[in-house]
Amino acid sequence: MAEYLLYPAALVLASLVTGLLLPWPLAYHPLSFFAAFCRKLALKVHPDLSRPAKQQRLSGLLALLLVLALPLCCWYGLYLMSAWPLLLDAIVILCCFSWPAWRKLAQKVSHSLHKQQLSLARSQAQLVLLRDTQALSAMGLAKALLESLAMRFQQQFTSIIFWYLLAGAPGVLVCRLSQVASQQWSTKLPPNQHFGQAAARLAAFFNAPAYLLGAALFWLQGLRRATAATIRADGEPFNYAKHQLLRWLSHTLRVSLGGPAQYGHRTVRRHRIQQHYEPTAADVSRLLRLLDYQLYIQLFLLTGLTLLITSI
User: Fold this and answer.
1) Residue 268 in 3-state DSSP?
2) Which residues pair with 266 in a beta bridge?
3) b/e burial code for range 92-105 (CB count within 10 A of at least 16 → b)
4) How does pLDDT run across 65-116, given as a tens digit for each residue?
5) How far is CA 291 from CA 92, 214, 226, 251, 311, in A?
6) Average pLDDT over residues 219-235
7) Which of 156, 69, 140 is nearest to 104 (CA)?
8) Cα–Cα distance between 271 and 91 in angstroms, integer?
């Protein structure tokens, strides 16, 4: 068991540190090209919204199988020919790791909000958020960023560690590709209400462990907070893992989250996690620091695990 974990732990540690030191620009990141492919494919296989819901769900399932099968077949073909399979695994991890680019973009939005350049912040945030940003106030924009960044960090960093240690490079590949497909075919957008269900369910399965680990870390970071959040059930509930993540994020930052959100001229009502304060631009910067601490903690644990196994 110890030998089984040694090489994966050391490899994922080295790959993630390399990705942090040499970040990949978002415009040229492989996952950005995969996202564009998902959008183009949806236009081909899902052109008519008047089709029956069952047929739309079937189209979404077949499209998901296609976008997952092509990269997996390419990976397996290269794996059979590779003399250094660990190097191929490292390339897969680097191609799936996109958090530094998203963090940099979030910093730009936060900086614009601090300078009260709301129009610029809305335009920049449109690259991060699925929801409509043009009607958002500064408070609404800060709240949307807090929710999105907390989830993206767990998807783009914590999930890679968890699924690589559990299932190797194929697990990481399926995890990250299903997350991107779910975002591009989001069921919150009216055209994808049925088409994106298969991708959403698969992504929720892969996200759940990372969300729960992130919730535990937020709980530890907010241990000194005495006031728990109040849940107002005035809309659609979050799934369990996402609810725990946002609940403990709200508790740690002491700001309200959840509530109604606008997606493609459609209002989605969600449970509201009520706190004493509403989010501001400063809370976005606070969250980025908290996520940096979580990143360091996980890298430290990986390093400790590697050294421990090596000494056995």
Assistant:
1) strand
2) 263
3) bbbbbbbbbbbbeb
4) 999 999 999 999 999 998 889 999 999 999 999 999 999 999 999 999 999 9
5) 23, 9, 21, 15, 30
6) 73
7) 156
8) 40
**Distance between CA atoms of 224 and 219, rounded to whole angstroms?**
9
pLDDT value of residue 222 = 87
The answer to whether residues 64 and 181 touch, using CB atoms and an 8 Å cutoff, is yes
Q: Considering only CA atoms, which of 123, 102, 121 is closest in space to residue 26?
A: 102
Kindly tell me the sign of the dihedral angle through the C-alpha atoms of 236, 242, 243, 249. negative
Spatial contact of 67 and 37, defined as CB atoms under 8 Å apart:
yes
Q: Alpha carbon 223 to chain centroid distance?
A: 25
SS3 content of the chain, % helix, strand, coil (to 5): 70, 5, 20
Instruction: Evaluate if pTM is beyond 0.70.
Output: yes
* pLDDT per position as a tens digit, 230-268: 777 677 788 999 999 999 999 999 999 998 888 877 888
Q: Smallest Cα–Cα separation from 98: which of 23, 207, 184, 199?
A: 23
Q: What angle do CA 196, 201, 207 make, to 5 degrees?
A: 120
Inter-axis angle of helices 85-96 and 2-21, nearest 10: 50
CA distance 104 to 220: 25
Measured in residues, the chain has a length of 312
